[in-house]
Design brief:
It is a single chain. Among the domains are: about 290-460, no CATH class; about 475-610, no CATH class. Helix content is about 20%, strand content about 30%. Strand 22 and strand 23 form a beta hairpin.
């Protein structure tokens, strides 16, 4: 117990509340020290029998008629000595069995027919017909703060008028588990008595872990100031658990009575504050606005940017749709320029939005450094306020491998920048993978399952839209396909149902339009659209090292001209038995399957021979 805390005094004779004549037989004195004490069963909190039984304040009256009398005085208990060894042994065995089987009822000291006694002279309060509280019932709306000190340290939960909600000191803004917080309110504001004991000296207090030298845990609950009343505080010391750990021994400051409270305080008043928090690491988004609100996603590995993805604004999307008939919401612009995979971006957003750790490990992890100008004067920002710099505490950076993060995730939501840093992947004793994660926004370090951030280990190819060619057919004006022994030239005019494709290079001029005539199947535009689907099915398989010019053997070239005047040339070079190195306007980084390039050429031949084209057929 800290030196500046008020110590629990040994029970002393109480004369303050004696009558005007100083009569020690006054009502309160009689309740605390005089008269007859009720009989009780097992000695709570003591592992060995003692020569003198401890005094116990009666919790339940024997009948409804006796309740009023019990509120004025305490009955003494008597102790009978058992002289026959066999009877003692049998009683001990029976007591052990009762404790193991019926311990909760023994500690409660009540049967269904007994009524609880409230010693109002001591400050106890009756709540309903069968419950008695150590002090008044404090509902959430009446509590200003709860200060807790336990084996894990100290914390304070307080009501913040500005936000009309509770917060934790040093963890302002960090969400907390509402269910556990409600339990904390009940534990501190509804101290339901299960039993009472009255220790005779400091030695007995130590048996319950409540002597000042035991440095017991405690909490202080303080009410809010109202127009009609000043704040009131109650300080409760929490000692040892009972033998069955179903109850804890407690003592209210200023009252020399040991109370027995249920073990529910273990998960609240005796818990680490970190277990009460919800380790959210990014700004909470409660709706699907992130689908349009996220404009940038970036990932760095070992301090170097790995990939940068840009979300197109409405003007950019319109431009793309007008030019090529498709809307590409995200574009990879570093380390290259390609369309991002829509499904992959959706996966990424699902993992970074409302990113939450599995366990809060540290909070208040940054040192705040005041910045100065060269002349020593405080450095002020544009708004005239002092500027600061925040540095991760060195010991925490080393402890969690975050001084030089393995990964840095950045994204921009509306006008807010979100940054999360990750350690190298770790493994627990069961082989489960996780990261240590740092959130500058909430000033915390958490543990997060690696499965929740799978995208950080993707290859560059995993981020890209795999189709090589993704343009609406109505935006194309020419398609020229050339191999060593074949040459096709398709010219497209019209749109929608009026689309017409004319081939004038393969053998003779051939027109594909409208529906197939009854006598000439596969001459309509439908079969040409199926051929176009085959071109759209061409996909990037993976990155590949660009071969030297002398090692390239051109297998096929496809030139596409668009109605906006742009033009792209796709070249496919033999790279292996299965793969072709592909370039777009002579720039190449990928390979495609050789069989897929062959299928495009073969389907062009089928089209010109009036055979049915099946874009889904095997290559």
């Amino acid at each position: 117990m800290a030196d500046n805390e008020e110590k629990i005094e040994e029970p002393v004779e109480n004369t303050e509340n004696a009558g005007a004549e100083g009569n020690k037989d006054s009502e309160l004195h009689s309740i605390l020290y005089g008269g007859e004490y009720s009989e009780y069963g097992e000695d709570l909190g003591s592992e060995e029998e003692t020569a003198e039984p401890k005094r116990r304040l009666k919790t339940f009256a024997d009948s409804g008629k006796e309740e009023a009398a019990e509120n004025k005085k305490l009955k003494t208990m008597t102790q009978k000595r058992v002289t026959i060894i066999s009877v003692v042994a049998a009683a001990v065995i029976a007591a052990v069995v009762l404790i193991l089987i019926f311990a909760p009822e023994i500690f409660k000291g009540a049967s269904a027919g007994e009524l609880p006694v409230a010693y109002e002279e001591l400050g106890e309060v009756r709540e309903g017909s069968r419950r008695v509280l150590i002090y008044e019932h404090l509902e959430r709306s009446r509590i200003q703060k709860i200060e807790v000190k336990n084996e894990y340290g100290a914390y304070t939960a307080y009501y913040n008028n500005e936000i009309d909600s509770f917060a934790f000191e040093g963890l302002e803004g960090t969400p907390y588990n509402e269910e556990l917080f409600a339990q904390l309110i009940v534990a501190a504001g509804f101290p339901l008595i299960s039993d009472r004991l009255m220790p005779g000296d400091r030695a007995e207090l130590s048996e319950y872990g409540l002597d000042p030298s035991d440095d017991p845990a405690y909490y202080i609950v303080t009410t809010r100031k109202t127009d009609g009343a000043e704040p009131v505080s109650y300080k409760m010391y929490i000692g040892k658990p009972s033998l069955t750990e179903d109850y804890y021994y407690c003592m209210l400051e200023g009252r020399d009575i040991v109370y027995v409270l249920e073990q529910s305080i273990r998960s609240t008043l005796l818990a680490d504050v970190k277990s009460l928090m919800t380790p959210l690491m990014t700004y909470p988004i409660s709706d699907n606005s992130y689908l349009t609100g996220i404009s940038e996603i970036q990932l760095a590995k070992n301090g170097k940017w790995f990939i940068k993805i840009h979300g197109q604004n409405d003007e950019e999307k319109v431009g793309t749709e007008e030019a090529f008939g498709v809307t590409v919401p995200f574009i990879v612009y570093d380390p290259f320029d390609y369309e991002a995979s829509a499904s992959r971006i959706t996966t990424i957003m699902g993992q970074i939005v409302n990113m939450t750790g599995s366990e809060l490990l540290e909070y208040n992890v940054y040192d705040v450094i005041m910045l100065y100008n060269d002349d020593g004067s405080p450095k002020l920002g544009e708004n005239g306020e002092q500027e600061y710099e925040y540095e991760l505490k060195e010991d925490l950076g080393e402890k969690y491998g975050l001084s030089e993060p393995a990964y840095d995730i950045y994204y921009r939501y509306q006008d807010m920048d979100m940054i999360i840093s990750l350690s190298e992947k770790k493994y627990d004793e069961n082989g489960g993978a996780y990261y240590y994660a740092l959130s500058p926004l909430y000033d915390i370090i958490t543990k997060i399952d690696a499965s929740k951030l799978s995208f950080v280990e993707w290859s560059l190819m995993d981020y890209l839209d795999k189709p090589v060619f993704n343009v609406h057919i109505d935006k194309v004006s020419e398609i020229e396909l050339t191999t060593a022994d074949k040459h096709f030239m398709f010219t497209l005019t019209g749109t929608n149902d009026d689309l017409v494709a004319v081939e004038s290079a393969y053998t003779t001029r051939t027109v594909f339009k409208g529906k197939d005539p009854a006598d000439k199947p596969n001459t309509g535009i439908r079969n040409f659209r199926k051929f176009y689907q085959t071109i759209l099915s061409l996909e990037r398989e993976d990155f590949v090292e660009e071969p030297a010019e002398s090692e390239r053997a051109l297998l096929c070239e496809m030139r596409v001209k668009f109605r906006n005047g742009e033009e792209r040339t796709y070249k496919f070079y033999s790279y292996s038995e299965r793969r072709c190195f592909m370039t777009i306007n002579d720039k190449g980084e990928f390979y495609v399957l050789r069989s897929m390039v062959k299928k495009i050429v073969d389907d062009a031949v089928r089209l010109m021979n009036y055979e049915t084209v099946d874009p889904n057929a095997e290559y």
